[in-house]
Amino acid sequence: MSAGVSTQQRQREMAAAVAAAAATSGAGRCRLSKIGASRRPPPARVRVAVRLRPFVDGTAGASDPPCVRGMDSCSLEIANWRNHQETLKYQFDAFYGERSTQQDIYAGSVQPILRHLLEGQNASVLAYGPTGAGKTHTMLGSPEQPGVIPRALMDLLQLTREEGAEGRPWALSVTMSYLEIYQEKVLDLLDSTSGDLVIREDCRGNILIPGLTQKPITSFADFERHFLPASRNRTVGATRLNQRSSRSHAVLLVKVDQRERLAPFRQREGKLYLIDLAGSEDNRRTGNKGLRLKESGAINASLFVLGKVVDALNQGLPRVPYRDSKLTRLLQDSLGGSAHSILIANIAPERHFYLDTVSALNFAARTKEVINRPFTNESLQPHVLGPVKLSQKELLGPPEAKKARGPEEEEIGSAEPMAASASASQKLSPLQKLSSMDPAMLERLLSLDRLLASQGSQGAPLLSTPKRERMVLMKTVEEKDLEIERLKMKQKELEAKVLAQKAEDSKEKENHCPTILRPLLHRTVTVAKPLKKAVVMPLQLIQEQAASPNAEIHILKNKGRKRKVESLDAPEPEEKAEDCWELQISPELLAHGRQKILDLLNEGSARDLRSLQRIGPKKAQLIVGWRELHGPFSQVEDLERVEGITGKQMESFLKANILGLAAGQRCGPS
Ligand code: ADP
Ligand code: MG
């Protein structure tokens, strides 16, 4: 097959269509995806075009005038069989008369929807009508008059080559699958050995056929290489089964995959269904028997369900009977789903087609009312999401992980490229997996989600479950890891400081006066004002401090207004137990205490915070909430800024904790 149309002309038309669409709708690469969109996608009615073929027998027409005729580019009329004085009038999105060319139909009704594939949206073209009315001619055509399929493929491949060229933000790839539904069996035309395939739906409502062959195609020659033998397969079958080719629904599925080359590494998938439906037939008229009758029964049954689906959608019924036939299950996306759909109803002018023509026109008129809601099918690339899937499975263990997997993941897992990337991600260490994430992207999505929620958005969250949960989990894991790393570094730093301090202390020991407070070497924390006194503290702690060779806490005995300084080294007189004790502490130690409090305030969980004196569950929550809202505390006094904590409370909190924490640090195992 060769498409005998001017490639350059079509490219120009295509480019113009894309530019016009982008200018009018603002649609481009920045569209929000369904998974990202919080609002219901805007409606797009199923478009309906009617094509009237010419008389196929050149001599007919003069003796047998047509029973249908066009009125203008959108409407037609047909004789009313109930009343010969009247005609029945129909209006559609487009009407193509007997003189219309293949290019007219393609450029007028099909080409404009192809651009949506590059936005990651789905599109469907369905040829409907009675047998012999020109469906196959419209969809496939002939080498001299190529139809919708070769024209669309040629344009799409050209467009994806341009859009996916080196240096452009997205890499594009195209694959094709080709199947037929024959007697309610889904048969893979690219793999004649395959049996009846199952149709499934993933959690996002996408229709999938596991095991269906997908051939990558980069050129029209590639497409022909796969498509022609598959079509010949059908023709062979047709000879054997007597016109089987027109006794089945033929579905060509073309997928356009886009992968963003830079962060946030989004991926989009647009699916194009090009469907040549089997013709409906009245068995009483055709006199079908045996196998033909059975075939016809299956065709009519599926077309009958198709009609019921359209009616249910138009009437807004709660149940749409998609599952009642394989055809409607497959078309779930195209009718009442997420695709930009166009139905081309083919009709014939001959009188003996009259009843079939009326029936096709009535079906077309009902289909015109069906509303679809196309959205961009966008997600993160598997190498971004893969690690988390894996870690979730690791967390859950094999049986739970299997249970937790949605149908989507099952399907994706079976597809070759996905399987390859999954195995690649399994080879990564957990740290590598985390480092392969893009936290900026996660943060952006999460904050956008929060923003939408704060604006009272009613729609699905931007990161809908389970993707959202994965994202949040990824972020938490990453943050925890960073925190652990930071704490380890800090611990090492403190260890080094303590060692240096010890060395320095032993050097200066000889000149050391026990009552004089010395500054710490390598002091880094100087935020605290030198607090000379701190009331309190458990006696046990004081004794521990006293036992410390480098004690920097000195007890001040308070006797009324008089104070007498005593070293802790001196034995404590028993009769002074009832006195009020105060402590004199080195400023450095206090600074350490403050720093520890500050660290806890900034890094501690609500539970950690509750371990502090004067902090109950409510205050702990208030602190955590403030921190999330305003960022880290720059000094402990900022605690006053937390709503519900007064200045007094802050001071008493400080007093109650500072010494304990400072002493804990100095005397602890570090
Ligand atoms: P269907 O697929 O609906 O059964 P076909 O596409 O096989 O019908 O068309 C039946 C016959 O009519 C074929 O010989 C085809 O070449 C011819 N035909 C259909 N439409 C046209 C048309 N628009 N112009 C010329 N011939 C046509
Ligand atoms: Mg046909």
Question: What does this protein look like?
Answer:
With about 675 residues, the protein is α+β, with helices and mostly antiparallel strands. The protein is about 45% helix and about 15% strand. The protein has 21 helices and 21 strands. Strands 2, 6, 7, 8, 9, 12, 13, 14, 15 and 17 form a ten-stranded mixed beta sheet that branches. The model is unreliable at about 1-10, about 10-40, about 385-440, about 460-465, about 510-585 and about 665-670 (pLDDT under 50). The site of adenosine-5'-diphosphate has 14 residues, from helix 3. The site of magnesium ion has 4 residues, from helix 3.
SSE layout and pairing:
Layout: H1 7-25, E1 44-45, E2 47-52, E3 68-70, E4 75-79, E5 87-91, E6 94-96, H2 102-114, E7 122-128, H3 135-139, H4 148-163, E8 170-182, E9 185-188, E10 200-201, E11 207-208, E12 215-217, H5 220-241, E13 249-260, E14 266-276, H6 283-286, H7 290-315, H8 326-330, E15 339-347, H9 354-367, E16 371-372, E17 378-380, H10 382-396, H11 398-404, H12 407-414, H13 416-426, H14 430-435, H15 439-454, H16 467-508, E18 533-535, H17 539-547, E19 553-559, E20 562-565, E21 580-585, H18 587-603, H19 606-610, H20 617-630, H21 647-667
Parallel strand pairs: 2-6, 2-15, 7-14, 7-15
Antiparallel strand pairs: 1-16, 3-4, 4-5, 8-9, 8-12, 8-13, 10-11, 13-14, 14-17, 18-21, 19-20, 19-21
Helix pairs in contact: 1-4, 2-4, 10-11, 10-13, 10-16, 15-16, 18-21
Bound molecules: adenosine-5'-diphosphate and magnesium ion (MG).
